[in-house]
Each structure stands twice: as structure tokens, then as C-alpha cells.
Amino acid sequence: MNTLLWVIYPYLSLVILVGGLVWRYRYDKFGWTTRSSQLYESTILRWGSPLFHFGVLMVLIGHVGGLLIPKAWTEAVGITEHTYHLMAVFIGTVAGFCTLIGMGLLIARRRLTGPVFAATTRNDKAMYLVLAAVIVLGLWSTVRANVTGPGYDYRETISPWFRSLFYFSPDPQLMADVPVGFQIHVVAAFALFAFWPFTRLVHAFSAPVGYLTRPYVVYRSRGDQPGLGRTRPGWEGPPRLPSSRGDRTRSRR
Amino acid sequence: MRVMAQMSMVMNLDKCIGCHTCSVTCKQAWTNRSGVEYVWFNNVETRPGQGYPRTYENQERWQGGWTRTRSGRLKPRSGGRLKKMFSIFANPKLPSMQDYYEPWTYDYEHLINAPAGDDIPVARPKSLLTGEDMKVTWSANWDDSLAGGNEIAAGDPVLAKVSDQVKQEFEKTFMFFLPRICEHCLNPSCAAACPSGAIYKRAEDGIVLVDQDRCRGWRMCVTGCPYKKVYFNHRTGKAEKCTFCFPRIEIGQPTICSETCVGRLRYLGLMLYDADRVAEAAAVRDEHDLYDAQRSVFLDPHDPAVVAAAREAGIPDDWIEAAQRSPVWDLIMKYEVALPLHPEYRTMPMVWYIPPLSPVADVLRETGHDAEEAGNLFGAIDALRIPVDYLAELFTAGDPAPVRGVLNRLAAMRSYQRRINLGEAADESIAAAVGMTGAQMDEMYRLLAIAKYEQRYVIPAAHAEDAHRLEKIATECSLDYEGGPGMGGGGPYGQGPFGESSGTPVPVQVETFHMQRNRQTTDAFTDPGDEPRRVNLLNWDGKSTPKGLFPPRRTEPEHTDGSKP
Question: For this protein, what is any one GO molecular function term (chain A) (predicted)?
Fold first, then answer.
């Protein structure tokens, strides 16, 4: 059971994530969009969306810090477990609640605004369910263990296990004694990863960082295939003499 | 000097009767899909009026276009790169559906399905966003021809800029129509606002397009465009905009809006410009200088140095030759009668307008004067601040001088040609009064009044060795479309296995391309002198073959095909 949950399942989900993204990028670039509903409603969105997105970005940074950076490293630069714990719990809880409130607003808006609800697909609903589950479970485990409870140092167990996935020497034993709340959170998170490429969440992978460095106006050449016509594979038109230089691409003009 | 070619348009507003044919045919061609019901790549606005979307010209509110920074550089008015990134989760300046209008259809089915009763069933309007009943309160041209009166027209942001006295007179005096498409700017602020880099300007012909595969729906372009001519498809979550009908332009056909324009008021042609000087020209300090700055960017295609540089830049000879014949060049540079729309947005728009003289003439006529007399017209243009100031706010960032110049030239042409029309001697002094010669007056008159199809639309076909793959030309076997006879689909020329009209239909373009072109470029009927042989179709019962209904081919032998005995 341990092996299934903490070795096979995470790998499977990561493979689906990467494979799914590649597949979606190759065959459904057109569907790769935020599918924003701001046109329908923007008063609630103006609060909910930034709250959720900035919150979730903070949560992401927190997870990177907590899961990928080994405890030994932070201690080496002089951050004691107590300091780290305080920081993580404080910032993490704030970010978590921002995310939760933002998501609450967005889901309420989605259900209550007529046009937005009409534009919601089944896929969206399922995605919201999984996403909400992951966020609520994560927040709930953190709050229960570290705010109201005695504190739980996941950097001794979950983090090494998570990193071990990437060394390709997974150690399921580390996860065996983790509190159930965290366990479910992790399982749900990997379910979300597997679902990710097939939902509108893909837009997260097209965060436009290139915008910061590119020139304002983009010029592009018309390219080899003008107009609306598509060439079917294997039907490139009548036979043509190979060009003297031997290259298959033809000069533009 | 870096020479680039730009496909551009000029519209002669004096000829626009506001029939919306351009809008309708454009919609049929491009946006008759769900998700873009509210999208009008081409719309016709009544001026004064709020425009579409409502009050889009109020850049204080919508933050479109560029703004000049204190250091003399340009940045998008809605904010630079960092600000865009931070407002990406909820664009604060996006027009809502209500600023356009809520698209609707009618419940036609109810007319048939309604149970028997005392009342006549009606087709209620249903929202295309929610499917619920709705009340229609606004549309793309709700204020057409000043409908709604001053209450609506008073919301015109351009009107707000002219003085109160002018405003009051204005409301009494005139209106005109302003057809608008994407401006395909030299310095497009929609492209600058796009975080994904999906909006690009085509290097060959300057057409600004959205790459549908790269658009991620961040919707910053809608804010970035001051003309609000980029629309968000609310179904697919992608931006869409006027394409300048590039598939037609590429094979030398005019855009749909030009093709179907009833008033024949649109002109299409190439402009060569110096791409290196665009940024500098768009950033001149004084807004009033923007009109001249943009004109200074254009390169004279008759200048041998420019021709050499254009060749250097890889522009083919027939394109250069087309640029020399370009009616757009003549209207903008030679006769100086075309003006850009809102140059103060600093995007260097490339759809220009000849401002309407008719309002001035109308006022003159109403006051009992001879509206065609040069002296009267010149005087009226000087005296009537109303149209001039308003037009200046539209076309020259508020500077009345260029507008006055254009109207004077149009007025001079009108009275010069009137004399000729009445059989009087041509009066060179009228031409001289606006710094032109009689011969130039004649040429301009020909271009504005009687130019034929080929003179109005000078469009060199795209140069691509595989342009034959374009949908509309059939240099390959025309039967090789999906499932067609060439692909194993059936008998000769579009006939399926069970005779004519069986099988899939032939792509209409293949058949009609030459016929269409023929029809567009000819003035005569196909067969002049065939009147005696014409048949009244209303009397024909479809059974007999009246003589002359199917004329024999004149040049080739009778066409024989297998299906007809």
C-alpha cells in the first residue's frame, strides 16, 4: 500500500502531467487559454482573482521553500527550526487564507452570476472540486497541526520523501507515519497534477515572463503557409523539382 | 532607412450613407460564430455619437493607446510591462459586456410550438449569454442616425472636447457616418500590450493579426487598443480582431467591406514607410504635429532612392510598382485630402479618412446660398467652426488648420467641376486658390468620383511560391478538396456518383473566382446586345428550355458532359 501510494501513484501522476502538457501543447494550442470570464462580470473578479492568484503564488513559493530546500541548508545559513516554523506558519496561513477567500469569491461568483455559470463546463466544475480539496486540506492540516496543535515538522518526513522522488530513489517509509491530514493533502495534490493538463489550469504554464524583456511591437513574417488553407500531411501539392541548393524551404518572396 | 510596405485604406466620408452593408458582410464573413456575437470588426458609427463600445474614445477612462513620458519616450497608457504583469489577474480597464451590448437572439421556436390560445405568440428576445429572457436596451448602432437625440449624443467624448457654443450649434446642424475597422497601426499598442506576444504585425504587408494558437486570453490588448478594435471571444477565451481580410488581400482582392461598399467610398493601396523612423515620429512632443510626423514617415515610391532601398529590403518589383499606383498615396500625400483617425493616440493608424464636406454645404444651402460656389464654400468653411472643430478633434488631435485645408480643397474641386459640368470654361483661379492646378483638380475628381475598381483597389498579390494553396485560387487541381472527386470522390467537375448535386458541394471559391473578378472589373453586360434574347424568368415554368435561357457558347464548341442526354 505504501509503495502504491507514495511511489507508483506520484510517478504516474507526474508522467500524466508532463505527457499531458506536451500532448495539449501539440494538439490543442488553441484551447490553451485562461478562458477569462471578466467580460461577463468584473466587480467580484477584481477582488477575488488577485486575492486567489497572489495567494496561490505565495503558497507556491512556500511549498518550494519547504519541500525542495533541505532543512540542513536553511540551518546552515542560521535559520533555526523555530524561526523557520514561525515564518512558515505565519506567512503560510495568511497566504492560505488569501487563497481560500479568493477562491470562495470566485466560486461563488461562478455559481451566482448567470453568464459566468452558463459558461462553466463540467470539466471546470471537477477542476474546482479537486483544486478546492487540495487547498482546504492543506490549510486545514497546517492550521490543525501548527496553529492549534503542537506543531508538526514536515521537513523531516514529507520534504525528503518529495525530493527522493526526483532522485529516482523514492523512500515510501518516510511517509508512513505522516499525519493523515497531510497524507490526504499530498494524495489530492497529485490528483490535481494529473488533472492539470486537461483543465483550464494550463494557463499557469504560460505565465508571460517573456513580456518583461521583449520589444513592445512584434513583427512576424507571413511564413510558408499563407492564408487559411491547411496542407494535409502527405498532400503537399503537385510534384516540384528540387531546388538547386537542395533545401526544402523556399525563400519568402 | 528601413523600407516596409503597409497595406492601407482611405475612406471618403462624403460618400458614406450609413447603410451598414460593410458591417453586415464583414460579420457574415468573419464573426457570425458564437462567442463573437457582439464583435463587429467593421462598424459604422453616427457622429456625434458614443461610438462602439460606448465612449471608447474617452482614454482617460479606457487608457488605450500610447502616452509620451517625460523623457520623450512612448509607453502604453495603461501601464508598462511591470504594471501589466501585476494587473494580469483582473484587468482593471476592460470594457464590460454592458459597454458593448448583451448579444441576443429571439425565441423563434415558440412561434411554432406555442399551444393554441387566444393570444398571438411572440418571439421573445433571449440573451445569448445566459439563455434567459432579456430586455434589449443597447446594440452596436443603437444611436444610429442620432437616434436617442441629444441624450445619447451628448455622451460623445469628442463632442465633450469642443466648446459649449460649438456644441449647441453642432447639435442643430449635422451628422455624418464614420465606418471603422482596425487601423492596422504602424505602432500598434494592442501588440505592445499583449503579454504573450501573440499579436504581431506582418512584416510583408503590415497587417496586424492575432495568433490564435499563442493567445492565452490575458485580454490586455482590448485595453491597449484605443480604438477598441480588438475583441475578446467569450467562448474560446481568445482575442480576435479585423484581419484586413488577409486571405483576400494576399490574392489581390479587396477586403469584404471594400468589396461590398455601396458608396464605393473605400480605397486600398500600399504605402511604403521608413520603419526606423516610426517610434521617433510617434513620440513628437506636440500632438498637433502628429499628423505631419506620420506623413513624414511615408516614403515616396516614385523616388529612385526609395525604390532602390525597397529592393534592398526585399520588396518585390510589382509591389513597388503597386505602391507607385497606390490611390492611398495619392489621397494622403499628393492631394492631401485624407487624415488619420485620432493621431493623438500615437499608434500611427493606417486607415485614413477624407473628412465630409457635405455638412458644410448643407448648412450653406439651408441658409439660401449657392452651396457649390467656391467663394461661398471657402467662406463657410472659415466661418463655420462647428464641423471644423469637431472634425479636427477626430482627425488632427484638435488642430483645425489641416481640416480646413482639406475641406477647402474639396470645396474647390466641387465648384471647379461644377463649372465644367455646366459647360462653362474651367476656372484655373479656383484651383490656384487652394494651391493646385486645373489638371490636378481633374485627376483628384476622377479618383474621388469615378475611379474604377482597379483604380480604387491596387493590391499586389502576395509573393509566396505556395500561394497556390490559398483557398480561393485553383492552380492545383480544383477537385482536390477534402472528399472531392480529385480525392476519389466522384465524376467530372464536382459531380458525385449519382449525377449533378450529389456528393459534397464544390468549394464555391473555385467556381466563382474568375466569374467574380470578371463581374467586378467590367462595366458591360456579359453579352451586350442580348436584350432580344432575354427570357422573363417569372413566366418560365421550369419545364421547357426557352431560346436564349441557356445561351450557346460563342467561342468554344458546345460543352458536352455525361450527365445530360
Answer: metal ion binding
